[in-house]
Design goal:
Among the domains are: 89-250, Glutamyl-tRNA Synthetase, Domain 3 (Glutamyl-tRNA Synthetase, domain 3, Alpha-Beta Complex), CATH 3.90.800; 356-406, Helicase, Ruva Protein, domain 3, CATH 1.10.8; 408-509, Arc Repressor Mutant, subunit A, CATH 1.10.10.350. Strand 1 (7-10), helix 1 (20-36) and strand 2 form a beta-alpha-beta unit. It has helices spanning 20-36, 56-67, 90-102, 113-125, 148-156, 204-214, 230-240, 264-270, 298-306, 321-327, 342-355, 358-371, 378-388, 398-402, 414-420, 425-437, 444-458, 462-474, 482-489, 491-505; strands at residues 7-10, 39-42, 73-74, 106-109, 162-165, 172-177, 181-186, 194-196, 219-223, 246-250, 253-254, 279-280, 287-288, 338-339. With 509 residues, the protein is mostly helical. It binds glutamic acid.
Amino acid sequence: MNQNKIRVRFAPSPTGPLHIGGVRTALYNYLFARNSGGKFILRIEDTDQTRFVPGAEEYIIESFKWCGIEFDEGVHIGGPFEPYRQSERKDIYKAYAEQLIASGNAYYAFDTPEELDALRLQYEAEKKTFVYNHEARKFLKNALVLSDAETKKLIESGAAYVIRFKNPEDEIIRMEDLIRGEVVVNTQVLDDKILFKSDGMPTYHLANVVDDHLMEISHVIRGEEWLPSMPLHILLYKAFGWEAPKFAHLPLLLKPDGKGKLSKRDGDRMGFPVFPLQWQDPKSGETSHGYREDGYFPDAFVNMLALLGWNPGDEREIFSLEELAKAFTIERVGKSGSRFDPEKAKWFNHQYLVKKEDAELAQLYIPFLIEKGISADLDYVTQVVKLVKERAHFVYEFWEQSDFFFRAPEVFDEQAVKKRWKQDSYDQIAELKELLSGIENFSSENTEEIVKKWLEEKGYGMGAVLNAFRLIIVGGLRGPHMFDIISLIGQEETLRRLEIGLHELGKKE
Ligand code: GLU
């Protein structure tokens, strides 16, 4: 295929927030386009007006902006195949449905929803399932049963009708899926899906195929849930006499235990987001978590998603978007579902966090400090970040790792006091305070050398003294290297905290 003719699309229906499975589908399309020098299109499939949710389209666009996934054409940026929103293309589809009627590949059907419901119930009572298929269509109220004159009369009288696809009766269809290989289906198992609805709108199937053709889509890369629609779509291309695009159906994203599709409920239950951005449901007002608001970096999020179903063929795990585009091929997308691992998602964020410049992280941390009522200059915060970033997955975790750089402990951890404030502690720490007050160069290396020499000379237990020291400076037995801490908070503050600590903890009898 001509490389320049590679055109792929992401075609969401604006029925709510975009699930991360959808983001991954879009990402693979994007990577495929970038890898092949093709074009990537955003088309909004909003022909089902009953499922339309206000704000969903804006949410989708904002999500991709956050991820850094860019489109070449689409509803938000225009392009040569405008419009890219199906509700604005409404008038196009009817003629195509009629074309299929004329060629004998579709038919008018007048059965009312009530009549069909009654049939369904009747079948159920006989433990059967009603399907509007090549058998049923022979005795229902449609143009295949009625005479041409009757059909015409009904339409002219304004009777409600739909247009259904007329499946071939007993044909084997062989289809190629780029991920699954050959898929074979007998048309006998297919139902005569509605292509055009009584409300004057096309269904997903018709609009999707017509638009993919008109927009010259070369590859349809979409979720596995659309695999059952592939035979109909292939038959539609054939009926129109159009060349079908190539298809690739992506495996599902699975729950962490591997049992079934990852759902919003799993996220709520296990405390991780299944949406890229926070979403507030306009009807219920219920808010769902988003990766952005939960502190994930977009590049970490995208990297994590890319590897859920695709692998580079070696052990590498960290990829920028450009590196992914270079390495991505459909052949390396797996056939089986990928388990979502919330811990791995955090791991990715940690990897990106430690790679970022300290000053950049400090800029991100400062708003959290301001919220705590702390104003500190960028340089100081940068040095703090350098000491604690290895211990955090997220910027918001910096505070619990570094609060003591910004304020003296208000309480001393009880367990730690019990364990580390011994009979000798008071005198030893008082002595240490004396020692520290005399040091001129308060750098980490220098204080460490002096204190260690003193410990040795006195024969004091290093662990005993340094832990009691930490307890007073930090408030508990946590934090980075002790001498890094005191050098950063400075001599004056160190001595002040020692003074307070000695007073508060007192001499243990
Ligand atoms: N509108 C469909 C969806 O919401 C698109 C499926 C496809 O890519 O063909 O996922």
